Amino acid sequence: MNLDFSQIVPYIPFMLEGIWVTIRFVIVAIILGFILGTLLALCKISSIRLLRAIAGSYTSIFRGTPLILQLMLFHYAVPQLTGYDITPFMSAILAFGLNSAAYVSEIIRAGIQAVDKGQTEAAKALGVPYREMMIDIILPQAMKNILPALMNEFITLTKESALVSTIGYLDLMRRSQVVGSSLFRNFEPLLFVGVIYWLMVTGLSVLGRMVERRLNVSD
Amino acid sequence: MLVIKVENLSKKFGDNEVLKDISAEVKKGEVVSIIGPSGSGKSTFLRCINLLEKPTAGKIFVAGQELTDPKINVTKAREKVGMVFQHFHLFPHLTVLENLTYAPMKVKKETKTVAQEKARELLLKVGLAEKADAYPNSLSGGQKQRVAIARALSMEPDLMLFDEPTSALDPEMVKEVLDVMKDLAHSGMTMAVVTHEMGFAREVADRVLFLDEGRLVESGEPIPFFENPQTERAKSFLDKIL
Ligand SMILES: Nc1ncnc2c1ncn2[C@@H]1O[C@H](COP(=O)(O)OP(=O)(O)OP(=O)(O)O)[C@@H](O)[C@H]1O
Ligand SMILES: [Mg+2]
After folding, report:
1. Low-confidence ranges of chain B (pLDDT < 50)
2. DSSP letters of B4-27?
3. Cβ(B200)–Cβ(B37) under 8 Å?
4. Chain B contacts of A139, Cβ < 8 Å?
5. Residues whose CB is under 5 A from ligand 2 (ion)?
6. Which amino acid residue places its CA nearest to atom 28 of ligand 1?
7. Closest CA to A68 of A104, A102, A92, A45
8. Where do the domains of chain A lie?
9. At what angle do helices B112-125 and B96-106 cross, to 10 degrees?
10. pLDDT at position A217, please?
11. A205 within 8 A of A197, measured Cβ to Cβ
12. Do B123 and B97 form a contact (C-beta atoms < 8 A)?
């Protein structure tokens, strides 16, 4: 075994820059996924059948096909169909955001539906309107179920984000490959970014556990 | 004056007709007990009166307003009908006081000061003034149900509906809840109470409605009803439970 980390030293700043590149699109994708996912979840619990059907099909499609395929579709099909070029960043947030929305909507729907039906009935019986009931009574209780699962989803998204290297987005993963091919040594740069991914994910897990503990205190 | 007027009410769940052509009236200040075997439609009947269930046919009037009018604002109409559930359904993430002030502040736009003042008065009435800042999970079943009654009263309803308010309680806690309900009855509140507590029906109710298989089979004053039921069905029901 001849590991030699000294050779990657000049490339470390280049690779570290990838952290921000990765985080930047992960954050945008998470926000997009969360907002769209919340809207989809509201459609799923609505009494209007059409909205339920739309949200259901959306989820089924995005969960039922490979993420890498969705990514490729956005990146290669959009320019072909519309004539507009799409940057790797745009394709990345679209694919990851829309994909994540499907999972987030399921998490939120399940969280809301796990709240005792009696809570809805009690609020209704007091004459509380739907919006206020959702915001003040149902969602705060649903958060206990939702937040831990949501944190898991964010962690998954962070790890899976490495897929964007396949469309030429210069993220952490892609940078390690660039360094690898210019050094003709892949193991060291891969190991290096592997540690960075692990640190990011572990950080998120710790954050998640802190949030969870916070929630349980209010019991 | 009539507080509840039900005309030819029926309710179906799919093909299952749970309420069949029920007509009934409750006058202001009257206490009505609704009794009958399990599955006879007592809860459904009560839930139709605040539109937690949507009637399939028939008309329901509460305080002169037709609830079954398709143009009605359902949320608004419910404000005037208080409901107490078997399993309390207090809001677990709010304190006892907040449980009582939430709807008056949100729905009736009362100020916090006014709502809290009224809430403390109600808590005093149900004997739980010292629990204002406690969370529901720290209360006993009987205390929870008394808070639930106070919460329903916080909206100053014209009418209170009770669906088996003591059935989920340990026996030693039944009395404290029934006592609160008796006080309420004596204060002139109009009440419809689904109950298995025949003692309460006999002592407190002005009238008993007996439901069986979705029909209103018999109704009358408690003493004659319990001593001398007019229908076979009521007779055999009373024989079983008394
Ligand atoms: N949401 C619903 N969907 C379908 N069927 C229902 C629903 N709610 C009640 N039912 C049916 O309606 C019938 C009457 O139910 P209901 O709860 O009104 O009876 P009940 O007299 O209150 O009985 P219990 O004494 O057991 O509470 C039952 O056969 C029940 O299965
Ligand atoms: Mg019932």
Report:
1. none
2. EEEEEEEEEETTEEEEEEEEEEEE
3. no
4. none
5. B 43
6. B39
7. A92
8. 21-171
9. 130
10. 62
11. no
12. yes
